[in-house]
Amino acid sequence: MHISEGVLSAPVLLTGAGLTAVGTAVGLKKIDYDQLPTLGLFASVFFVASLIHVPLGPSSVHLILNGICGLLLGWSAFPAILVGLVLQAVLFQFGGLTVLGVNTFNVAFPAVLLGGLCRNCLHSDFTLVRCVCVFACGACSVLLTAVCVAICLTATGESFASAATLVILAHLPVAGIEGILTVFCVEFIRKVRPEILPANSPA
């Protein structure tokens, strides 16, 4: 869901960069040394998942998996996603360095928000409740990211209104797929590496 360079206005770029700087600073402060392998793992997951994308006007459609990043990393999702986006911009010219702040915030903020809201469900003994919450986290993280992208586009100019609407509509099926993938990933982790799951506490 990268926004291309040369699209957004300077105020939108500066706002995104500022918010990402704050989120990344908080994320780095909250990183535990023991969490570094998990952080690297999910930075790689995000990097690979969003490599296969379909261009859509000034943006693109692809898997993000930011919901599971938010669930397991909390605020540390900001630096993890930032690293993934930097590598994509440098190696494959996806997005770009000037829009790095906006793209990072658009992906990481929904991850942190929804991950924080749904994290306590990870340890529920009721499978249905747990799966519904995790699905909602995965799906809604994608939808909120699409909304953030749409807001950035419309804040730049009314000419992007139709593209903003298209971005949201195009990610409706992606949201469903991401919700299902997030459930499968969490249930798999519960079985093989439950120690990766965060405790019932705020991010």
Automatic annotation (TrEMBL):
Tell me what this protein is called.
ABC-type Co2+ transport system, permease component
**Residues spanning the membrane:** 37-56, 63-91, 97-117, 129-157, 163-186
Q: Which organism was this protein described from?
A: Desulfomonile tiedjei (strain ATCC 49306 / DSM 6799 / DCB-1)
Output the Pfam families linked to this UniProt entry. CbiM
Question: What's any GO biological process attached to this entry?
Answer: transition metal ion transport
Classify the protein's membrane topology as the record does: Multi-pass membrane protein
Q: Which residues form a coiled coil?
A: none
Predominant subcellular localization, coarse grouping: membrane
Q: Which domain of life is it from?
A: Bacteria
Quote a single Gene Ontology cellular component term: plasma membrane
Q: Which UniProt keywords apply?
A: Cell membrane, Membrane, Transmembrane, Transmembrane helix, Transport
Q: Where in the cell is it found?
A: Cell membrane
